[in-house]
Here is the input.
Amino acid sequence: MQLWQSIDELMGNGAQEREAEWLEPLPESSLNRRQFLQLLSASAALTTLAAGCRRPDHKLVPAVSAPEYQIPGLPLFYTTAVSHKNAAYGVLAKCREGRPVKLEGNEYHPISGGASSAYVQALLYTLYDPDRIRRVRMGEQLQTPLSTALAEIAKRIQEAVQQGKLVYLCIDEHCSPTYEELLKQLQNRFPWLRVAFLPSFLADTAAALNGDVLGIPAEFVPHLGRADYILSIEADPLGIDRYALWHIRTVAEGRRLRSRQDRMNRLVAVESLLTLTGTNADTRIRMHPAAFEGFLAAIVREIARLRPVPASLLQPLASFPVAYAEKASAIARELLEAGERAVVLVGPHLPRSIHALGLAVNWVLGSIGEGKVLDPAWTLPMSHPKATERARLEEDLRNERVGVILFAEVNPFYSAPWEFQQLLRRVPWKVALTLYHDETASESWIHIPVAHQLESWGDALSADGSLSIQQPLIEPLNDGIGSVQDILVQIAQHLEPDVFGDIRSYREFLRQRWQRLYGVTDAQWEQILREGVYRPSQQRARSALKVDVEALVAALRPSGLSRDGLLAVALPSYALYDGFFANCPWLQEFPDPVTKLTWDNVAAMSPGTAHRLGVKSEDLVQIQSGDTVLTLPVWVQPGMADGIILTQLGYGRTQGGEVLKGVGVNTYPLLNGQRLGYVAVTVHPLGRTYPLATTQRYARLYGRPIVQLTTLAEYQSADGPHFQQPEFPGYPAPEGRYRIPLTIVPPYEYRGHRWGMVVDLTTCTGCGACIIACQAENNIPAVGKDQVRRGREMYWIRIDRYYLGPVDEPRVVHQPMLCQHCENAPCENVCPVAATTHSPEGLNEMTYNRCVGTRYCLNNCPYKVRRFNFLNYHTDERPPLEMLFNPDVTVRMRGVMEKCTFCVQRINEAKYHAKDDGRERVRDGEVLTACQQACPAGAIIFGDMNDPTSQVARLRLSDRGYHVLEELNVRPSVTYLAKVWNAPPEEVQQLRIA
Amino acid sequence: MAQLTSAVPARLDHEPLREPLVLGNPTAHDITEKIVGIVERPPTWKYWLVLSITALAAAWGIFCIGYTIAVGIGVWGLNNPVGWGWDITNFVWWIGIGHAGTLISAILHLFRQRWRTAINRSAEAMTIFAVICAGLFPLIHVGRIWFAYWLIPYPNQMYMWVNFRSPLIWDVFAVTTYLTVSILFWYLGLIPDLATVRNYLHRRLPKAIYGFFSLGWVGAARHWQHYEIAYLILAAISTPLVLSVHSVVSFDFAVSILPGWHTTIFPPYFVAGAIFSGFAMVLTLVLLARWVLNLQDIITLKHIDNMNRILLATGMMVGYAYLMEFFVAMYSGNEYERYVFLNRAFGPYGWAYWTMVFCNVVVPQVFWSRRLRRNVVVTFIASILVNVGMWFERFVIIVTSLHRDFLPASWDYYAPTWVEVSIYVGTLGIFFTLFLLFAKYVPLIAMSEVKAILPHAQPKHHVPVEAI
Here is the structure.
């Protein structure tokens, strides 16, 4: 067969043409074939070299001389102190290979007591926050050497001083006595220097009143461990209070029921908002703030009926309208019964008159005094009234007397009123000393990115008078630039080289002050660093309590809060506080303990108010107060008083990072000149909606026995509590306390450890410290608002909050929910690839490597505590966030299921230690899960159920113990202890009937 | 031939007592001409138009599958309580559709229902394509598809074995077995017809291809004898599969502890539902084929009538299951169970529940009327509605049970994203593309079987008087 390629060829007439084609000279090209190929290969080789076919080399260089104590793979613990505004927390930092990876409370610290809060955990995130600035900016120059900037600042200060102008240093409320001393010395040395507190918001009503009446110009830190009866007038000691951690600890201690004979404190909340404290109250009275005065006045009058009270005090009470007289008299009698062990707490945002009434009750009850609940020795550092110094700053600004202003970790261009910001703008030279390039830094001419608390030296004073040293855990990540104090020392030295004699740094200043003041030797210093706490032997001067009744009576003037119209109040947010934490995704996604909202602030209002305004959740409304108009989404919040709108501060930041952008609305303009308080507003629905992301969409129990409830009286009664038990055929479990549903499968016998947990619903306040601690320990990503809206938050432990009873006055229970490590785990048998299995120690284990992601285990989990990585949530993390990860916990990729492991990495570590010590078993208390360790209430107890002496083994047999969904025969390893309220039994019985 | 020795009505010389299965009294040659003609002639522009639409849908679906694999399951609307949504709904729906084929081929064959011959080929093809579409979903719904092969027990260096306690493993076996047997059964039945096509074709390559697949069939008596035995054996093997596959699929739910899933009624209920939806899909397809390819004489109103009776019967079985589920839930005294069922009917997905009830229970009731059973338009609409209803049945079972289970705090709502919808549309595209290719290249009607039921193929056949 003839092979042919074209018709022409087949016909035999193409040959010549083809020949001609070959003979014809090719058009000239600048490249011939060889050159082209040469170029091609050369460029390919260059591209290969330039781009690299492999990942860049990261060399692991072993240390020639290893750092002291450092053993790769083993953690080192350092004590330090962190401060959240003027509250100090003693902290134990876990460091791995020279970087802190987890903060825990320092057990020896009187305030922390081993516990930590969400803010403490979040501070670790801010340390590694990729949005922290690393270089000094001066004008347009983004990479100015620090020395240049300092010289420039010194020059500008000198110029200003020559012109007879002042230099202002604006600082936030802090708790460092050495910082205070430094500022004092600087002011003594430089008379032109003025220091002004410029906190995000002012809440010094109580401090001012205490100053006037008691001569103690500070806010008390109530010692609630000494209280049997706490009446909270919209105070939030267990919530937003800076000492909440301490309050939760002490209140929990007063209501921990170890046996049926135990006593329990009584917490009564009177409030118009639903605060976290209100959700934990034994009795909660929903009341409009306009009635607070009348209510308290009625209490004082009732007390006066039963006990002698100065007549001068009673006289002005007539000006308050009577409100809730019946309830007031009942409460007054209860208060009197508790006597000096009763206390009235008043919310920081409430007017002076209510504070004065509260103070009057406390005084009459005798709860103020040394060793009492309100101990004059227990005050909040730097909580003195700041109105006058604030006025002086404003005055100086108005008169253009300020030449240079330094903002030390304050952000007035975010939080201050607009007029005040305009005044600040007129200062010619502004310097920002802040972590982030925030609103104030962008308004400033020089921005120095100062070191983080965890990178620098300092000290911190707690309310009880104990001191802690803040020691750096890591070299400053911002190119070694020091803390605010370091920078101040350096600026001072630029101005006057020998300003502090031979002291060159703030660390030396600190060390020298401690030596001078407390006589701390080097050995003692080491010891203090190890323990983390120092109690100065010299006690603070104490004098007899003097009450200026006249001043108190003078303060008893009606505030004029009105019931007509709408009142709005903006309070610090449970998640972001005043906005400092706005760039921390952990806290942005931290579900508000009451609303369970993430990533937004809202206008919370009662169902009645929402109905009256014709709005529902997610509707946008305009809130107008004077010239201020804010657009906020509505959140219908059960339990609030009608006519009240609550919104949160800390949102609506514009500068300072990628995370905070576009989250929420800045509600600082709603403050009354930066002071917390109610303002009259008008609200207009806009007819548009705005999506909100909540982690809990349904809040009712639908009669399900998920939470067991009782009251103290019923619990202690002869018949005991009547828990709503699920009915199922079964037989008693070997330990006697529980029943096992009928089964033909004999239970597995655990010979070694058998890990279990007990969660006490009575002491749990729902604060959520466990959530963030778990997130930090287990490398759990924040997923963002969109993903939360889709119901894909990754928390391994969540706190379910249920409303019981009527929608207007609900009773609230918080129930931490985590993997129950069921003995008969329904997730295990449905996994086709055996990626989730049971360990011989009773752990329900998840093998990420093996997981293919069918999600069947999630579907079959009755507690829905399994979390699926729907997307690669860790991909967009920028350096140095990888340093934040706990190296003992795998970072999970997408397509993999995950869940609580009972901190198996900690269990294994404890087992290694036990083995090293030649022990067969881990001792009780040797393993603390991250949630347990953080919990200030001590509501979570973990341990070996097989060890009869362990706390868990004993507590799980408590008569309050129950298993959630016991009837499913999943046999959970988590035992809940029933919620007990110290309230009249009929209140809870009503709930059961409902 | 089995058919030839089967019972034959005694009085064929009169007006037939039974309605004839093939109209127009065609000869065997007429049948061959008609069916092979479809293969032989080039397709019309209508065919190309429809094929391009379905292929486009298939391509879009495949792109969206790729997108899901590249980015993650997060591109779907699933969330923490609702781990399965459209993915498993579509899986169960397609598997259900794939049920009619085997039922028609195997069970009706064993019961000597000779009317099946007109539709069995397309029903079997539909089964295979539906199972292919079904199998796609468990595969792509996993978070890490590149490890999906771990669901197959194979010896490996990890010493890891699958978890035989998991119903998903049972699924893997059930579905792959079903697919294998269905393909074998379909292919076996095709052999005589492929040989016929081979004999009719003139162009070399197609002839060679059909020749290859007809395995040297020449229609010898010995061939027929072996063929009939093999066919009978395969029918016997397939028969339990009809019951087992969907029972196993229902175990995915029944074995769990979720209220609304944990139900002993599921296996029969799912099988009935599968036959219901399978017949509905067969009806949809054959009505289209009948209309487009002028097969009214072979697929007669009697066939449609018969299938509608099955729809009516299985529809009522499904309706009974719906009622019984409610009764059991209420009677159990289990509050979770009660809540799930009340929530199904009156909760946020109530619309889906009532759509399901309307389509699956109310719509088939029209087939009590013989006139409507034989109405092609009514049947066509009903068949589509039944499949809509059956899709919603699976959706209701899966999603309403998951979205509100034990702890109210974890409840959520689920809605699909465009990706999930696209993948579903994509599998419809794949299904119809495959079916169109099948209709063009493979004899759509089992010629050899139809020829066997022609009047003159019967031993006592007399030519009717009119024909003389």
Q: What stands out?
A: The radius of gyration of chain A is 32 Å.
